Amino acid sequence: MPLTSADFAAIWLTLQLASLTTVILLIIGTPIALWLAHTRSRLRGPIGAIVALPLVLPPTVIGFYLLLAMGPHGYVGQFTQYLGLGTLTFSFAGLVIGSVIYSMPFVVQPLQNAFAAIGPRPLEVAATLRANPWDTFFTVVLPLARPGFITAAILGFAHTVGEFGVVLMIGGNIPDKTRVVSVQIYDHVEALEYAQAHWLAGAMVVFSFLVLLALYSSRKSHTSWS
Amino acid sequence: MTSQINLRLQHRYPGFALDLDLQLPGKGVTALYGHSGSGKTTCLRCIAGLERASQAYVQVNGHIWQDSQRNHFVPVHQRALGYIFQEASLFPHLSVRANLEFGLKRIAHQERRVDLAHATELLGITHLLTRAPHNLSGGERQRVGIARALLTSPKLLLMDEPLAALDSQRKSEILPYLQRLHAELDIPVLYVSHSQDEVARLADHIVLLNDGKVLGSGPIGETLARLDLPLARGDDAGVVIEGRVGNYNLNYQLLTLQLPGSTQHLRVTHASMAIGQPLRVKVQARDISLSLNPAEHSSILNSLRVTVVSETAADNQAHVLIRLDADGTPLLARITRYSRDQLGLRTGQLLWAQIKSVAVLA
């Protein structure tokens, strides 16, 4: 048996984490990307920079600050304790929050580019044809930005699967709760179980390649605005 | 319900200020005419609500769309307007039919006054319904765009240089449809254009804009002949006359056009038309020569009895512009200063205007 039950548990947990993170990111990333694509506000620069920060920061830095914030003495931690939820560190919920922040730019930026490429004109046309803003979003923006949504979902999912530093800082290494594939590989290597590490690591390489292959082959020339 | 459009707009951004106060007729075609940068498009966008003018009062046939003093602003999608952009801007993810139905679906049944069959027939696009927008020519796209706007049964149609993005062949392909629209549908139109030809063909009323301000506004025949406006000074100066078809000489293929409120007429070469039909012609100032006597033994078809109203300098030293009156129909003549002095022209003088060419605008 190449993969142990602990390996499968790690894979299952990773898929759950990545799926949930992707769904949350599409929901909160869409309004952020819409705002960034259309606003003339002076806050556009700062907000755009904050969203992009995880692209350049080492994951350990993000993890470190999240650990402080969500820990028993942090603002978030005190708030969750006040609500009777305990602290989010070393929990699956904590991992989800960390992943959302960590993968944010990989979802927001493709969406922002897609919305910017659509431009203001289709929205204006829809308004003159009696569509209210929500109606316009679902019947015009969403279909026209579909390639952007697909790219955003794939990148957000894949990037979360590949997460390691943030998980280790805020989640530790608890089976079925926070032990994702990347941590499991690390464990195998630490225990000198190179054969086991190979199976998992190889699976990650194949998975990542397939995801990127799907992404690059599906990317056709953009539908032109006529 | 008053059939009138009232506009007061004040809108400024760096390097430009729009400031106008207009009462426009609530029916027919009103052209907003001016150079690029004169504020025509901004004016249209403010009326539509696509741009929110800082100080504005917009009232269309009894409906107040914006009144900044009462902080009243109806969002674009709640205004009963149709907007035609310079580029057709069809939705690329929808078929022609779905594009046409986009607006139609969103208005209540009892408010629908134009149906799909009528609109597609009017614009000659019935055979295109199943096509995708990217498979249409520029002219076809624009016609679909116009039909799409009509299908929302607008109370006001705003057209922002709908022909500007098309070559001259496509333009002449669309113009007849716009003229049909004008004749068949009772929807007031604000038409932004910088083309004298389009304005002469389509407009009943013209607003002359320059640098965000109104230079003049009035019925087209009257306004084109106003000597105090820059229109009269250009090389293309002339008037538009809308007369009614009197009779038709089949042998010579000549149509008689009765001047409004007058027994005088013009004769034009044209195919036969029913008596009483309105027909528009353009008479250019440079095509009129003046004479103290009625022309006899001349190949010139048209000679009208006119009186001299006023004169002004033309765009060069050698010429002057004379405003004439033919029983209530204004005319412009561009003659040399030398001829003026030879004839000894003075206000109120009776003359004969010989018209070398009359262009039918149809």
TrEMBL record, chain A:
Q: Which InterPro entries match?
A: MetI-like, MetI-like_sf, ModB_ABC
A single Gene Ontology MF term assigned here is: molybdate ion transmembrane transporter activity
The answer, when asked if Cell inner membrane is one of the entry's keywords, is yes
A single cellular component GO annotation: plasma membrane
**Localization, UniProt:** Cell inner membrane; Cell membrane
Q: Which UniProt keywords apply?
A: Cell inner membrane, Cell membrane, Membrane, Molybdenum, Transmembrane, Transmembrane helix, Transport
The record lists the membrane-crossing segments as 12-37, 49-70, 82-102, 149-174, 194-216
All residue ranges annotated as the ABC transmembrane type-1 domain in the record: 11-217
Q: What exactly does this protein do?
A: Part of the binding-protein-dependent transport system for molybdenum; probably responsible for the translocation of the substrate across the membrane.
Q: Which family does it belong to?
A: Belongs to the binding-protein-dependent transport system permease family. CysTW subfamily.
The name under which this protein is listed is Molybdenum transport system permease
UniProtKB/TrEMBL annotation, chain B:
Name of this chain's protein: Molybdenum ABC transporter ATP-binding protein
Keyword GTP-binding (UniProt) = no
Q: Which residues form the ABC transporter domain?
A: 2-236
Q: Which UniProt keywords apply?
A: ATP-binding, Cell inner membrane, Cell membrane, Membrane, Molybdenum, Nucleotide-binding, Translocase, Transport
Name the source organism: Pseudomonas fragi
Give me the gene this protein comes from. Answer: modC
Matching entries from SUPFAM superfamilies are given as: MOP-like, P-loop containing nucleoside triphosphate hydrolases
User: For this UniProt entry, what's an example GO CC term?
Assistant: membrane
* Domain of life per record: Bacteria
Q: Which residues form the Mop domain?
A: 297-362
Alphabetized NCBIfam families for the sequence: modC_ABC (TIGR02142)
GO terms (molecular function) for this protein are:
ABC-type transporter activity; ATP binding; ATP hydrolysis activity; molybdate ion transmembrane transporter activity
On whether Lyase is a keyword of this UniProt record, the answer is: no
